[in-house]
Design a protein that fits this description.
160 residues, alpha+beta, SH3 type barrels, 5-stranded antiparallel β-sheet, 3 helices
Length: 160
């Protein structure tokens, strides 16, 4: 690191450069009347808006007739205080599958074409579920987009 005072290292503005006389421009129509002083380059243009107390704000704002006034909530700081966006996935589907798998609940899967398949969910995936069926019927791997809805077999009496 340098021993000299570097303006970037100590957080100060760089020293003004000595003014150099410019050559006359080729097009005199584009020439400016006088050159800008070097001190204008670093002027602070930040606008400051004072926070008025609530009573003074009411006096400064004109009345809008007999309409009821609606108060706005105060914004804290310079950033907007919005509600955070909801999560992309709630994992409710995964929780439901886990619960039915652990209790080995007999389920009915209704496909898009109306076919009902009875069985117990053995495992699930992002794209499909595996249904174990009783008896001599084969186990099935069913794609989730092909499922219309699923319900417990014990709730079947109200479905038909």
């Amino acid at each position: 690191m340098k021993d000299s005072l570097d303006s970037a290292a100590v957080g100060r503005a760089p020293a003004p450069k000595p003014e150099v006389q410019e050559k006359a421009p080729a097009n005199p129509a584009k020439a400016t009347a006088e050159p800008r002083p070097a001190s204008d380059e670093f002027s602070n243009r930040k606008l400051i808006r004072p926070a008025l107390p609530h009573r003074e704000r009411e006096r400064a704002m004109p009345d809008r007739g007999d309409s009821p006034r609606v108060e706005r909530t105060e914004r804290v700081g310079s950033g907007m205080s919005k509600k955070p966006a909801p999560p992309d996935q709630t994992h409710a589907e995964n929780f439901y599958y886990q619960k039915q798998m652990q209790s080995r609940t007999p389920m009915v899967v209704v496909l898009q074409d109306g076919e009902e398949i009875h069985g117990i969910i053995e495992w699930y995936d992002k794209n499909c579920i595996k249904l174990n069926r009783t008896g001599s019927q084969p186990n099935l791997l069913i794609y989730k987009p092909n499922i219309k809805y699923i319900y417990k077999e014990s709730e079947a009496n109200g479905r038909r």
